[in-house]
Amino acid sequence: MTVHRLDRDEARRIAVRAQLLDARRPTNLLATVRHLTFLQLDPTAAVAPSADLVAWTRLGAAYEPAQLQQALDRDRTLFEYRATVRPRADLPLYLPVMAGAPRYLQAREWLEANASFRDDVLARLRDAGPLLSRDIPDTSAVAWPSTGWTNNRNVTQMLEILAGRGEIAIAGRRGRQRLWDLAERVHPAGVVPLPPDDALRERNARRLRALGIARATTTAQPVEPADVGDAGEPAVVDGVAGEWRVDPGAVAVPFEGRTALLSPFDRLVHDRVRAEELFDFEYHLEMYKPAAKRRWGYFALPVLHHDRLVGKVDATADRKAGVLTVHAVHQDVPFTPTTADDVDAELEALAAWQGLRLVR
Length: 360
Known about the structure:
Blueprint: E1 4-6, H1 8-18, H2 29-36, E2 39-40, H3 50-59, H4 65-74, E3 78-81, E4 84-87, H5 91-99, H6 105-113, H7 115-128, H8 154-164, E5 168-174, E6 177-182, H9 183-186, H10 196-211, E7 213-214, E8 233-237, E9 240-246, E10 259-261, H11 272-279, E11 301-305, E12 308-318, E13 323-331, H12 337-353, E14 357-359
Parallel strand pairs: 1-8, 13-14
Antiparallel strand pairs: 2-4, 3-4, 5-6, 7-9, 8-9, 10-11, 11-12, 12-13
Helix pairs in contact: 5-10
């Protein structure tokens, strides 16, 4: 098999193009999610909800958050699964994952100890669903044990486990709260899962197409695995130790870049080790640090300029006041006048998209 030999410029451009962050913007939300494989959901909205920010970064001003809700709630072309939004057409790829859930021993043992609780939840949804979690009684025999925020949140944990198993699904939202129902009433009937090995190969292949270049296995622990197995073809990158896997269709493709402000959860930067190896880009999400210990900001946005990650923008949206405040622009490398102008233009576009006034 061919071993591709790439310099770091080529590797970076492959990664940027694969994430639809080059100059050729996509024009359709569903096609964008299909290519990226998912959008990550996160409650943090210091600038904008991450899923919306990722979609806007690709689609630009043509994207409106209502499009995502319509695809989820009315068109049903997308569905929520494990804090992500995915194409409903990909259900056959994830049904084998659901069949093996829950993955961890603690959750399996807790589910087994609460068999009657599980039956009560399913019966309640069958009779009265879709329901909010607060509308479902806690009839657990054993409390969920945790030293963190999930301690004794028995209904929430049961719903998450049953959703992970594909027995129930998110039917929509009331505000930010999820509405739960039986999966058979949310997903189309007659969906046939792929055999587990075939599904794994296809998931790996799609993940590599969305990343362009990746390690076969990684230590990154995002909501979606970053491993790609033996998908694609082997590659080595000049100046970077070890072997990579590359999408052969992404090699030697002409590149034209642009400037983009990324969510901290964006797939271009989600694997912090990969970002350092290919882009020399150091990044840590600092929302959980005390303010005095933050280097870049609560929800700093990585700055992509063509094929390089060149800095971070510390910004906050105050929707009540109608402003997007830029607290700082951190330059990892000195910005050229062109780069500075492009970053300013993206900030103006980000504010305008949200109907906010930009305050520097």
